[in-house]
């Protein structure tokens, strides 16, 4: 069996990396940029860090910022219309997963208009053309949407999120500049950081994991575990430092892996909570992560024991089962240290049946190492009830 791996054509890393953006555009002969960014980033001047560089290089641009935290079908369709009207010939996505996911969908539909309904992109869509040339600039250290071949859109009418997986959606250029993440508040730093850890741990234990993805995921677990607390403290103090830089790299490395091998039940359940209660994705992932690890332990105890070591746990004298439990406890402690809530606001008993159905139908679930019954997923959701 062949194992496929898809990555960006080019990626830039480190403080000041955004200065490479104008050159990438001009060298390729593009004339106008369509900038996708969310309203808060525009309001607080984060988007301007890039658009000022475009201005300085004489590159015209047009802004699209009608993007919700959990982007909807309408956000995408409005964006496609705005892109066509703008006369732009390339896209610059600036933001977290919401902005980048929206930009991905816009770019795919712009080159494959038969998918203009958006919903037909769910799953593995048979697109023929690569998305419009896109440069992705993350402002959070979590989703790694700048390096993945998937994106998530919300369907409000059906109260669900759907995952789109498409090698044609990956941004050709990723610019991972920790200075673009310097304005992240502490809560967002924690949530997106735990999302990145979930990517790494689920990717390390998913059914599709293999040697190349293991290399990325193990290193990502190390980087995130050793840097998230510092990044959180830096966000609280307003003084960026090495923690932020470590998280910028760690989340990208995690994305390099999971994008190619899949995730599991944690993400399937987290998507469901976000769709029903608008729970921030990283928060949902974090509160469910130790629960999902416990559920999967019978199938992946050896892998979880390795996760413990990657997280810095001294497993000397522990057997495999004890080391796996130590990994679960280390995740719980990290979540507590960065003040992740333990329960999902709004979750009620009457919703559990539908939540379980939606989670088992989520595109991330098939990668889970253990099969789950409907009743078992209900019980897993019950563990995060208020």
From TrEMBL:
Alcohol dehydrogenase iron-type/glycerol dehydrogenase GldA domain: residues covered: 12-178
Family matches, as SUPFAM superfamilies: Dehydroquinate synthase-like (SSF56796)
All copies of domain Fe-containing alcohol dehydrogenase-like C-terminal, residue ranges: 189-384
Entry keyword Transmembrane helix: no
Superkingdom classification of source: Bacteria
A GO term for molecular function: metal ion binding
Alphabetized NCBIfam families for the sequence: lactal_redase, PRK10624.1
Family recorded in the similarity comment: Belongs to the iron-containing alcohol dehydrogenase family.
Protein name: Lactaldehyde reductase
Origin species: Parafannyhessea umbonata
């Amino acid at each position: 069996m062949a194992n496929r791996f898809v990555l960006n054509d080019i990626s830039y890393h480190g403080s000041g990396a955004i200065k490479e953006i104008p050159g990438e555009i001009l060298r390729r002969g593009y004339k106008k940029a369509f900038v996708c960014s969310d309203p808060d980033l525009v309001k607080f001047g984060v988007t301007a860090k890039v658009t000022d560089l475009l201005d300085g290089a004489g590159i015209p641009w047009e802004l699209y910022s009608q993007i919700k935290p959990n982007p909807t079908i309408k956000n995408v369709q409005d964006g496609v219309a705005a892109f066509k009207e703008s006369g732009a010939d390339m896209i610059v996505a600036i933001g977290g997963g919401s902005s980048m996911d929206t930009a991905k969908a816009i770019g795919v539909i712009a080159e494959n208009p038969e998918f203009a309904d958006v919903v037909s992109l769910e799953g593995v869509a048979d697109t023929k053309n690569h998305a419009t040339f896109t440069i992705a600039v993350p402002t959070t250290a979590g989703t790694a949407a700048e390096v993945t071949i998937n994106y998530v859109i919300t369907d409000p009418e059906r109260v669900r999120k759907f995952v789109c997986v498409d090698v044609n959606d990956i941004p050709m250029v990723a610019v991972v500049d920790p200075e673009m993440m310097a304005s992240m508040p502490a809560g967002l730093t924690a949530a997106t950081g735990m999302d990145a850890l979930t990517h790494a741990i689920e990717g390390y234990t998913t059914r599709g994991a293999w040697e190349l993805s293991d290399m990325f995921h193990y290193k990502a677990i190390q980087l995130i575990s050793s840097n998230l607390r510092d990044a959180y403290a830096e966000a609280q103090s307003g003084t960026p430092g090495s923690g932020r830089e470590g998280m910028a790299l760690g989340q990208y490395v995690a994305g390099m892996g999971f994008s190619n091998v899949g995730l599991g039940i944690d993400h399937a359940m987290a998507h469901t909570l976000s769709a029903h209660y608008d729970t921030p994705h990283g928060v949902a992932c974090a509160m469910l992560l130790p629960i999902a690890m416990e559920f999967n332990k019978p199938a992946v105890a050896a892998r979880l024991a390795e996760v413990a070591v990657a997280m810095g746990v001294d497993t000397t004298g522990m057997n495999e089962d004890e080391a796996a439990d130590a990994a679960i406890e280390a995740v719980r402690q990290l979540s507590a240290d960065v003040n992740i809530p333990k329960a999902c606001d709004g979750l009620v008993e009457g919703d559990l049946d539908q939540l379980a159905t939606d989670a088992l139908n989520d595109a991330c679930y098939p990668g889970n190492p253990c099969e789950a019954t409907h009743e078992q997923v209900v019980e897993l959701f019950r563990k995060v009830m208020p």
